[in-house]
Write a structure and sequence with these properties.
15 helices; single chain; alpha/beta; 369 residues; seven-stranded mixed sheet
Length: 369
């Protein structure tokens, strides 16, 4: 970015997959770093993540606009752990035609705002429009959808044309930033450490806001941003010696004996909850791994079966975090609770040394803006 352009607010467009919250939190961390390096961003975000998500995660920015636009298909989810390949295929054809109303709306906004760069967190739509309009594009990824779909190609050849089309789109990015935990290393592209959000409050303040006694420790149970109904809450209540903070699709914050149930929109900064905990148990996605690493706490990991990213996440966790693993069935039926004492005995990591890759990713993005 030239010195003269630094005096003017930098217009940036951002297209983010809505496949869970992890991509959104990763992008939010990069956008905050970008705003520190180029203060006063003129930011337009395209995603189907809820408005409140961006309001809570980008509160440090002076202003931004969010647009409810679907930016990819990803995998159509039946639940936090199950996806529907037939429905995914049925939606891919229409989406990748790029001939639908939201595409026209996004195109019109880009023509009006003239962004200096389009940042895409595994969103093919942003790459398509950037290429069409001649706007520089940055792809932020630890996997791409063509790579994910490749795992299903042998079982269903219908994925073939979509893998080819998406491969061309992802390959068209002017800059491709790969971020650990990484699924497929491509040596010609820069790689950055795991990206996670910064902490906002001390563990002591978090405990105070949760109305827990000073010095308390709790186990954080989560399935990320995808709704899930827990069947084992009564079993958790049997562990009177442990407090559990459970996040999910609850209508409001509730206290039930040794449980605190938190809705997704709860007013707490999730990384602060992670750091104040004695560990995290639940479904593993990019955001959970990165933010658990950033907080330096143990992870009781539940990996999605039949999802190609899981093997890369498992390898990273086993090499970098004190951890245990529960199968999907063990987690869903609550049998993992019987191994709780072993998990609680894991040592915390030294609370220093891990830096987020957000600043480096922001610097790289500014290099082509």
């Amino acid at each position: 970015m030239s010195s003269s352009s630094a005096l003017e607010p930098l217009p940036v467009a951002c297209f983010v997959t809505s496949h869970g919250f992890g991509h959104g939190t990763r992008t939010a961390a990069v956008l905050q770093a970008l705003d520190r390096q180029a203060p006063g961003l003129k930011l337009d975000i395209f995603s189907t993540l809820p408005e409140w998500f961006w309001e809570e995660n980008l509160s440090s920015l002076a202003s931004f606009r969010s647009h409810q636009v679907r930016t990819d298909v990803g995998l159509v989810q039946k639940s936090a752990f199950e996806h529907d390949l037939d429905k995914t295929l049925s939606e891919l054809g229409a989406f990748l035609s790029f001939c639908w109303e939201d595409v026209d709306r996004a195109r019109k906004t880009l023509l009006e705002t003239k962004p200096a760069v389009i940042l895409c967190d595994v969103s093919p739509l942003g790459l398509f429009l950037g290429k069409e309009l001649g706007i520089p594009t940055v792809l932020l990824e630890n996997f791409t959808w063509d790579w994910i779909y490749g795992a299903y190609l042998e079982a269903d050849s219908r994925f073939g044309p979509y893998i080819e089309q998406l491969g061309e789109l992802f390959g068209s990015a002017d800059l491709r930033i790969q971020t650990e935990p990484l699924c497929e290393r491509l040596q010609e592209h820069p790689i950055v450490p795991p990206i996670f959000r910064e902490f906002e409050q001390s563990p002591e303040r978090t405990l105070e806001r949760l109305d827990l006694p000073a010095g308390s420790r709790f186990l954080l149970v989560t399935t990320g941003g995808i709704p899930h109904e827990y069947s084992f809450l009564e079993r958790l209540k049997e562990r009177k010696d442990v407090h559990f903070l459970v996040t999910g699709s609850f209508a409001q914050l509730q206290r039930e004996e040794n449980l605190t149930l938190l809705p997704h929109r709860c007013g707490f900064h999730f990384p602060d909850l992670v750091r104040a905990s004695c560990g995290v148990a639940g479904k593993v996605g990019y955001g959970t791994v990165a933010e658990t690493l950033g907080a330096r706490v143990p992870l009781f990991a539940v990996y999605r079966e039949n999802f190609r990213e899981s093997s890369a996440l498992r390898s990273f966790v086993e090499g970098n975090l004190p951890s245990m693993e529960a199968s999907q069935s063990d987690f869903l039926n609550g049998s993992w609770i019987g191994r709780m004492d072993n998990f609680l005995a894991l040592s915390l990591i030294e609370k220093s040394g891990q830096e987020s890759g957000a600043c480096e990713a922001a610097k790289l993005t500014l290099g082509i803006a």
